[in-house]
Design brief:
2 copies of one chain form a homodimer.
Chain A (H helix, E strand, L loop, with lengths): L4 H8 L20 H16 L6 H8 L3 H7 L3 H29 L5 H18 L6 H11 L3 H25 L5 H21 L6 H5 L9 H16 L4
Chain B binds a DNA duplex (18 and 18 nucleotides) through helix 4.
Chain lengths: ~240, ~240
DNA sequence: GTCTATAACACGATAGAC
DNA sequence: GTCTATCGTGTTATAGAC
């Protein structure tokens, strides 16, 4: 593994502006090989898992050569890290922006705080990528299988996000004990990730077992249901 | 892939009694090769993911030969299926038993229903296996990566469980609309799985970001927090 | 039932032509 | 920047001795 120049040159290349929501065309110039690899990697890693996915499947989907990944990223592991950064960063920025907007109109109520937490990921997951739910499925797998490559890349920014939102929850509900606020933040994230991942194309579990009552393809319905459930849960007497 | 006799003979072999909680020794006779393979498979699949794990790592951990898996199970895929069945069956039976016990003392309150839903998996996950949380991590991965092998094996029994518990929720809270009951059942499962998987040996995210306030190694605390949050969420006005 | 040996193939990575 | 060819390794699965 020599520190050859193409790798380091490719690693410095911008390719993806921070804070920009994901979409097939927003990993950079859609024609650029690097951008096409990243989007194909999103699809394949989300569908197969990080360890199980192969670079060959990614390059086939991207329509590029196998060697292109090593030229543009240097290694499989670096590709994973850059993908996670490209996914987690914009998503969390949307949440922080939503929280800032809520705070700009005075001290936000609990509903507004929870909406800022769950609204952006649900909407982004459905609207911003070609196939919905890829994004959340990728994050679920980063959690399900802790790996050095994925965790170090994303945990730091998620920790800061959590503390920011817990503080906002505590400000909206001053009677809430600090310990409960942290537990319930975690419960909220769990409910969010589970429901978004639930309804993938093949199974639609909740839709099926509810006899069609729950439309898990409607992001507005998901957000509405999540906010009602989570706010009531946060307000529960310990 | 000829339908040779050893495979089918091995597949019929009982090896694991239904309804028995999981533990290293309860996949069957602890000395039996088949039982040792199953327990090693639980550990390795939970740690690495279904596709990424190799049979070699499983057989090394079980102290058996590589060929033993093919002799006792026939193929990698059948091993996965039998493992999922051995994991999901006993867990859900514990939940149904707990619900039955609650119903035996008259119509159960919502707290009792939720406790029957989340208590058994939390306790089983911590107490019944050598390494805690292996069990839930396995189920999370079965959800995160939909595969024919895992999903068909477990979804049917989970569907029945869901409907049983939603009915119990509706009986405890007659004013609750049926649609909301299904949404909130899914949210409860999401919160449960997320919190149990959160605190694996390396990261302990919630414990860390809460500054040590939340003890995610205490199953009683987890169940208490889950029940408070979920019951309040279920009772939310739509 | 358990082992060794090996077939048949997919993987990540790299060298080197263009 | 992009391709082909290939190396070395690890994988599932099976054949056959014991």
């Amino acid at each position: 593994m020599p520190a050859s120049s193409p790798k380091t040159r490719a690693a410095r290349q911008p390719g993806n502006a921070p804070g920009v929501p994901l979409s097939p065309s927003r990993f950079g110039d859609e024609k650029a090989t690097r951008a096409r690899i990243l989007y194909a990697a999103l699809q394949v890693f989300a569908a197969r898992g990080f360890e199980a996915a192969s670079l060959r499947e990614i390059t086939e989907k991207a329509g590029v050569n196998v060697a292109a990944i090593h030229y543009h990223f240097g290694s499989r592991e670096i590709l994973v890290q850059e993908l996670m950064r490209a996914v987690a960063g914009p998503l969390n920025q949307l949440r922080l922006d939503a929280l800032d907007r809520a705070c700009a109109q005075g001290a936000p109520g609990l509903e507004a705080v929870v909406e800022a937490l769950v609204g952006p990921p649900v909407r982004l997951s459905f609207e911003a990528t070609g196939e919905p739910r890829l994004l959340i499925r990728l994050l679920i797998q980063a959690r399900a299988l802790p790996q050095e490559a994925t965790n170090h890349a994303i945990f730091e920014q998620y920790d800061a996000l959590a503390i920011r939102f817990v503080d906002a929850m505590l400000q909206a509900e001053p009677a809430l004990p600090r310990e409960e606020a942290f537990w319930r933040y975690a419960f909220a994230i769990g409910a969010l990730m589970y429901i978004v991942s639930d309804s993938d194309q093949q199974y639609h579990r909740l839709h099926r077992i509810s006899g069609g009552l729950c439309n898990t393809d409607d992001p507005q319905a998901i957000v509405r249901q999540l906010v009602a459930f989570i706010t009531a849960g946060i307000r529960a007497r310990p």
